[in-house]
Every structure is written in C-alpha cells, then in structure tokens.
Amino acid sequence: MKTIKAVVGVLYNDKQQILIAKRQSHQFMGGFWELPGGKIEARESNQEALVRELKEELGVMATKLTLHQTMVHEYPQRRVELYIYTIEQYQNVPQGVEGQELAWSDIDTLSSFNLLPTMKAFIDSITLPKKYWITPSSNHQTESWMAKFDEKMTQDISLVQLRSKSTLDIDFIAEINRKCKQHNVKLLLNTINKSFDESYCDGWHMTTNEMLALERRPCAQDKLLGASTHSLDEALKAQDLGVDFVVISPVQATKTHPDTLPIGWHTAQEVASKLNIPVYFLGGMSLDDLDKALEIGAQGIAGVGAF
Length: 307
Hints:
This protein has helices spanning 46-58, 118-127, 143-153, 170-182, 208-212, 232-241, 264-274, 290-295, and strands spanning 2-10, 18-22, 33-34, 37-39, 61-74, 78-91, 102-105, 131-134, 159-163, 186-190, 203-206, 224-229, 245-248, 279-282, 300-303. 26% of the residues lie in helices and 28% in strands. An 8-stranded parallel barrel has the order 8-9-10-11-12-13-14-15.
C-alpha cells in the first residue's frame, strides 16, 4: 500500500474559529472538508512543507507553528501519515488561491461539515481537556464524597468520570448530572450494568473487560466514549472499536495498587504515538507530571487525587 506523508495547519481567526478547506472534485476524497495543507516533498522538513503549502493554497505566511498531533489513517487505496500543526502566528488573510472553497467554523459546529475521517480525532483532541477527574469509587452519597465532588465543581475541571463498583440510585446520578451541567462540566458514567442509553450523562467510560467484550461501538457518535487500557494492544482494540479516547495505566507506581507493575513513561509514550485518538495517562500522576505528559503526546492526565 502506498504511504503518503502530509502536513496540515490549524489556523484561527479573531473569533477563535478554525479554517477548513473543501477538497476539489478532481482530488482524492473530493468534496470532503479538511484542514489546509498538503504532501511533504523530498528533502523538506515538516515545517518547511507546511509553510510552503499554506503560501501556495491560502496566500498566508506562517511565522510560528507548533506540532499539535500526529496520526496514521489507512484508506482502501493508500496510507496517510498526517502531521497536524497549530499556526500560532501568520500574515495575510487566507484566500482560496487554488479555487478551493474555504470556511471558518466554530469548534462546536465543525462536525456539521462532511469532514475527512481524520478530522473526528482532531476535533476530540482540541475539545477534550488536559485533566480528566475520576471520582472516588465508593461511599457515594456520603457527606465527605459529596463535599469532594462539590469542591471539584469549583476548580478547573471540565470532564468527570462518575465511577462506582456498586449500583447507584438513579436520582443520585441525575443530581450529579445536574450539578455538572450547572458548572459546564461533562459527565461520563462508569457504573455497573450501564446500558449506554442513559439520558442523564454526556457519555460513558468502559472498563477494560467491558471494552474487550464488544465488537462495535455501543453508543451514538454524538456521545463521548472512553475506555481504560493497560497495553498498546488493548488501546489499539479500543481505537478500532470507535472510542473517542483511552486512558492508559498505570504509568507510575500507585499507593492503591502497590503490587501492580507500572508500564512506565516509555510504554505510555508509545501508546500515545501509535494511536490517532487522545490518550490520558493514569497512575501515580500529579500536576507536576502534566507538562511531561503533554510533551510526549498525551492529551493529558487522569486521576482521583492527581489534582
């Protein structure tokens, strides 16, 4: 199978909208919308190729760019290695120099366009936060548990996993969901006997065993779906299943599971580099580890007491 290496750029306007371009009818995947960019030519670096492509396609000069994400996507006819850069500074107003149609889109409305398959993972990577809080898994509805939850609602948290190893009262879950909505926080359920049809949440988080037992994505595309994994093979299985992100653990040793051998930073980095979807690191994490996790390709860190 032919492999094509390509580079694309994320350009924002003053309204924090993202620029997308429509592929022309004579091109591969014509009619689909994508980020502007193109193929990397021989003896070009990724950044050199992107600066050239943006000048040729849009008439803009990119002066500051940083790598945001890498991914690999296999089409029936070809394999594409894609490097996505954030264009932090650029000169001139973008125009469709080659006759292509352009559009500025809010992040929330990007999915309304007929996007290339790689764009779904990209949207997840820019909308998911850097921190994923997991609630304590027992003693729900106690004063101490609720106090901890209410405290997190006032902090810099926007994604929460309600985790429980026992059946929870529906009214209690609905109340937690109400509080999350009040603070603009997304709630994912990781409860036993989940149906993936509950209306009082923004999505679900699956255990490793739940994920491995499935053959297809168990919920609608407009809901968030995460999965816990402990190896590259499990993470790849989750990606094939269609989850929106994975958690890989334990990266470091933990007090709660002292006999569990950590996978280490090197393996965690390998998982992040080989998946197209966002990856959170879990296990022995603290806020001091966040920058390191981001530098080696993670979406961020997850934990109960990490932040």
